[in-house]
Amino acid sequence: MDPVNAFLAWSTEAEGSESVIRAVQSVKGQLAERHYDVYDWSEQPHSRNIGIEIQEQIRRSDILILEGSTVRPNLAFEVGFARALDLPVVVIKQEGTHELPEDFGAPRYLNYPSAGSDAGFGKFETDFGRLLDRLEMESLSPGHRALRRKLTQLHGGLQSVLGNHDSDHPQLHLRSGWLEALASEVRNSGPSNLVTDADYYSHCFAELRDWNDGPIRAIADLTDNTETFWQTDLEHPELMSSQVTERIFLIDWRLFFQGEAELSRHMSMWRDHIGSLSGSGYEIYVAAVDDVGLGVRHPFGDTAVGAHLLLLNPDCIGGYRRRLESDFGERRMLHIERDRHRFNLATRYYEAVKARAVRFDPNHDFHTLKREWLRKLEIGRWDEHWTLRTEHRSPAYFDRYDQHIRTWIPMYDDLIQDCSATVTSEILRIFQEIDMSVSVLEIGYGTGSLTAAIVPWIRTLCEPFEQLGQLYPVDSYRAMDRAVQMRKLAHRKIGDDLNRWVRLLNKTAWDDVEDHITYNVIFGSLVTHFLLGQSPTEESVDCFFAECAKRLEPGGSLVFSDCFAPEEDRERQAAVTAWRTWMIDNGLSEGYAEAYLAGNQDMVNAVSVARLAAGAERHGLRLVKEKLVGSTQMFRLLVFRSAR
């Protein structure tokens, strides 16, 4: 921060001017040692309008030091003006001179000898130094000075507005209303807290560059738009980090799988930012925002906006809260509170988030950071005790399924997208052919990725028919999964569309699927290998298509995206090797990749497309589409249709 600005005024008209000069020189010497910027009134040329000049100089000052042995005409004005600005005032005066009037506000007095007493001046110098030490901890601290300076700037700006209007004007009333709103925010915040619009955060935080009395830790949530300054293509604002000890950036975990360009852009900014603050000790950590909610709660509870957090020792926390306003809807407010108990809660929250984060090294590239994140959270780790009975697997399988699956299955999102697009295409084809409502059955909905991709399309398709009072193009969407744990995860993805457009059932194919109810489209992703078993035989293939055929309407479709191996053993082995290589290249350790393949022999030994096509033909079904997904030759989308 800029040095302390001191306004010094004195006069040689007092008796014993040598003592006055000695005292003033002693004061100026100590101020120089502390690197104060001193404006000595007695040494400056002055304009004719002395009063205006005094005001301007005092406005620029942080402290007034006045020699008060004589009641100078300007002394009362200087003290009064300083009091109005809440500036600290120190009066030095010779021993034995008249006391100042009581209505001066009892400024701090320091006496110095009226004669050349070395001992007396030594005590005066010591007392003056101690007084400055105390003031620098109190009203001359960087925070006090910064706030007073901003207040002076505000006052000066308003004085300029008043001076620019000789008579009443709407601008004056408008400014008055704005000031009332600002004053209301200050009053409502109280003396220890700050509550203001979220847009002001970067301005507030920038002023912490002068705070050096403790660590500053922060969590920046990049998954919402509250802190837009982290989302721009410009360099990260340096003042947002110049005094920060460490910051945790929260990202959407999907960036590790689908957002390489976006995450690499963030990483480039972090790298440049750490470089520009070299030597500051600034540490960056990265965590997935979805991991934050696992067993920890934000100190602002349900009112918190995102997972943003600011921790300022010893007792100050900050974040964002929602405030509902009747005229403006929801407004995001910055809250910075001084509360020891909440600070302790916030510290535990911060440490819990950090425990799930990885430290960002400027030498990290995208793949290195991803590999560190996967290793830290054991994503992609296959437990040898996970049996074919999915519902008996541990919570670690279900809680991180959406992350696990993307480390195991090449182009998983493409697999889901292709399956979704094909299912909707088949629905439209059948609806146009039969001119009746279509019913669909999804087998093995899992965490609802495929379901959540199809249901919004069905809702959009059906809404015009609902408004016209006509039958929906899709009148029944049933989805089943044998693991009851999956329903909660799928519900979270599907949201309000659950039960209105789709029913999630806890059932097992094929034992719990009634064969007297038929469907126009039966589909699923990563389910056929499970239904066919670890070593598919002609019998298991026949059983699969027989069960499908019993429940499929004439002219209906089967759509499955899954692992379908090449026919030749050599090609199969090459495809599995390519699959293993893909997993390792995309972040899994060799051990994790080997464990997954060893525990999923039903996929490694998946049936070939040719054998499936032959089995389908035996049950009146014809393979009409085959699409390779990814480059490992193991994953495909297949479409079978029955004759009408």
In terms of DSSP E residues, the strand content is 15-25%
Number of helical regions: 23
3D shape = elongated
- How many structural domains? 3
Mean pLDDT, to the nearest integer, reads 90
Examine the secondary-structure arrangement and name the CATH architecture of the largest domain: 3-Layer(aba) Sandwich
User: What is the terminal-to-terminal distance?
Assistant: 83 Å
The assembly state of the depicted protein chains is single chain
Number of strands: 20
CATH class of the largest domain: Alpha Beta
Helicity range of the residues? 40-55%
Rg on CA atoms, Å: 37 Å
Structural class: alpha/beta
- Per the CATH scheme, the topology name of the largest domain is Rossmann fold
Q: What would your notes on this structure say?
A:
- With about 650 residues, this protein is of the alpha/beta class.
- It has three domains: about 5-145, Rossmann fold, CATH 3.40.50.450; about 200-375, Endonuclease, Chain A (2-Layer Sandwich), CATH 3.30.870; about 405-640, Vaccinia Virus protein VP39 (Rossmann fold, 3-Layer(aba) Sandwich).
- About 45% of the residues lie in helices and about 20% in strands.
- The protein has 23 helices and 20 strands.
- The strands form three sheets. The chain has an eight-stranded mixed sheet. The chain has a seven-stranded mixed sheet with strand order 16-15-14-17-18-20-19, with helices on both faces.
- Strand 1 (about 5-10), helix 1 and strand 2 (about 35-40) form a beta-alpha-beta unit.
- The radius of gyration is 37 Å and the shape is elongated.
- The termini are far apart.
- The model has no long low-confidence stretch (mean pLDDT about 90).
